Amino acid sequence: NRRFLLAARPQGLPTAQDFRLDQAAVPVPAEGQVLLRTAYLSLDPYMRTLMEEGGTSYAPGVTLGAPMIGGTVSRVVASRHPQFQVGELVLANAGWQDYALSDGQDLTALGAMAQPSRALGGLGMPAFTAYVGLLDIGQPRPGETVVVAAATGAVGSVVGQIAKLKGARVVGIAGGADKCRYAVETLGFDVCLDRHDPQWAGQLAAACADGIDVYFENVGGEVFDAVLPLLNLGARVPVCGHIADYNRQSLPAGPNRLQLLMATVLQQRIRMQGFIILDHYADRFEAFRRDMGEWIDAGRVIVREDVIDGLENAPEAFIGLLEGRNFGKLVVRVSED
Ligand code: NDP
C-alpha cells in the first residue's frame, strides 16, 4: 500500500520534500469494514490549509507523519459490511493512498456512472460549492455583471456557466491566454482576462463599465484589490476561498487595505458571506445533483478534468494546483476504474 505522508509543514509553497512516499501492508478489514482501492484521488486547495498545524475551524490539520487526507472514488475490494458489495464504486475519503479501510459511514455508493471521476468534480464537491455560493448567496439577476477568478477551475468554471444560465453577464479572470480563450469560446463567458497580463486590472475596469453586482471570491489577493473599487451598490460577495493567501508567510506589499474594505462594504451596502460547503449537503445536494445532472447531460454546462496518472505524481500535481498549472478539475488516476 503506497501512501503519501505529511513529512513537514510547508514554508510557503509546498515542496516535494514536504511529502513522503511510504510503503505499508494492505490493511485487512475487520467485521463491519470494507477495504477500498483508490481509483481517483481529488486534489483540492483546502488540502494546503490542512497541512498547517491546527487546520481550520471545519477540519483538523493533518498530523505530521500521517497520511494526507482527500476525497476519492474508490472500489470495494473486500467487504465485511452488509451494505457494500465487492466490485462497487463508492465516493470515499481514502486520502493519498492505494488502499484504505472504512466502516461505511462516510461512503456514498455511486452505482453505474459513465465517468466516475465526475463525482469529485462536475457532479461533486467543487461544482456543488459553485451552485450554493452563486445561487443562494450571490443570487445573480438577469443583466447583472458577475465576476469570478480561477475561471476555468473546478469551482469557477461552474460559477460562470450557471451565471450565464441565469442571464447574467460574466467576466472571468484566469491565468494564461489558453484558459481565457477556453472560458469565452467553450464555456460561454462574455469576457475573460489573463491575470498575468500587466494590464489586466485596467482591462477588468473596462470590461465592467457598469460595475460588478456579484463577485464570487475564489482567490483574494490582487484580484480582490482590483475588484473592490468596482463593486456596485448592493453587490453580493460569496466568500468561497482565497487561494492567493494559502502559501503566504507575510503581509502583501503596499498600503493597509482594511479601511478601504470597510468603507466600501459600508457605503456600497455590500453583502459578503463566507460559506463552507460541508454545511449544505443535507439541504441542497439533492437539488444540485438534479440540476447539474440535467445541465451536463444537455451540454449546457461543460466540465473539464485535468487527469494526472499515478499516485506517485500527486505532490507535484498538487503544487501545480497552487500555482495555477491545472486546467480544469484536478484528479489523480490511481488505478484503473
Ligand atoms: P481550481 O481548480 O480553481 O484551482 C486553483 C486555481 O486557483 C489555479 O488553477 C489558479 O488558476 C488559481 N490561483 C492560484 N493562485 C492564485 C493567485 N495567487 N491569484 C489568483 N488565482 C490563483 O480550484 P478549486 O476550483 O477547487 O478551488 C477554487 C477556490 O474555491 C479555492 O479558493 C478553494 O479553496 C475554494 N473552495 C472553497 C470551498 C468552500 O467550501 N468554501 C469548497 C471548494 C473550494 P489561474 O491560474 O487560472 O488563475
UniProtKB/TrEMBL annotation:
The keyword Cell cycle does not apply. Pfam families: ADH_N_2, ADH_zinc_N. One of its GO terms (molecular function) is oxidoreductase activity, acting on the CH-CH group of donors, NAD or NADP as acceptor. Keywords: Oxidoreductase. This is Oxidoreductase YncB. InterPro entries: ADH-like_C, ADH_N_2, ER, GroES-like_sf, MDR_fam, NAD(P)-bd_dom_sf. SMART domains: PKS_ER. It comes from Lysobacter capsici AZ78. Residues 15-332 form the Enoyl reductase (ER) domain. The lineage of its organism: Bacteria, Pseudomonadati, Pseudomonadota, Gammaproteobacteria, Lysobacterales. The keyword Oxidoreductase applies.
